[in-house]
Amino acid sequence: MAIEIQKSFEINRPVEDVWEFLTTPERVVECLPAAQLTERVDDRNFRGEMGVRLGPIGVTFQGTIQFVTLDVENHEVTMHGEGKDARGSGSVKMEMHSKLTALEGGGTHVDVSQTVNLAGRLASFGRGGIIQNVADFMFGRFTDCVKGKLEG
């Protein structure tokens, strides 16, 4: 089951500062609840895990994230991730594209679009809107954390 997620936020920091933060997995993972980076394979490939609660089910995905494109000049990044639930009850694949745009006054606008594909028993939660609610909650916590770290 594929779920499309479109989000954006603004932050009062120069685009270069936000770019550096969002393209450094060790920093990003600090702002993802129940996530950890377990291995840096190389400059574009990483292994990690992330816990997610979907209604009555809590899952921990173990998997990989890869920077597919890193366009420094245009401040655009595309990532691919996939993981499996440690207990074998489902899997997830994700494609995410982010674009940063400088704002007048020195701030940055960030647009994020994702396609998330769930398989296994987790897919049934996508039909009832639970996945969208979880995505909204996690994105809100993520952006609050990023702002807190960058805006001070």
Properties at a glance:
alpha+beta; Alpha-D-Glucose-1,6-Bisphosphate, Chain A, domain 4; seven-stranded antiparallel β-sheet
Order of helices and strands: EHHEEEEEEH
Gross CATH architecture: 2-Layer Sandwich
Distance between the termini: 39 Å
For the biggest sheet, the summary is: 7 strands, antiparallel
Summed up, the helix count is: 3
Supply the number of structural domains: 1
Query: Roughly what fraction of the amino acids lie in strands?
Result: over 45%
Rg over CA atoms = 15 Å
Q: In total, how many beta strands?
A: 7
Spatial order of the strands in the main sheet?
1-7-6-5-4-3-2
Structural class: alpha+beta
- Can you tell me the residue ranges where pLDDT is under 50 for at least 5 consecutive residues? none
Report the CATH topology name.
Alpha-D-Glucose-1,6-Bisphosphate, Chain A, domain 4
Output the CATH class name: Alpha Beta
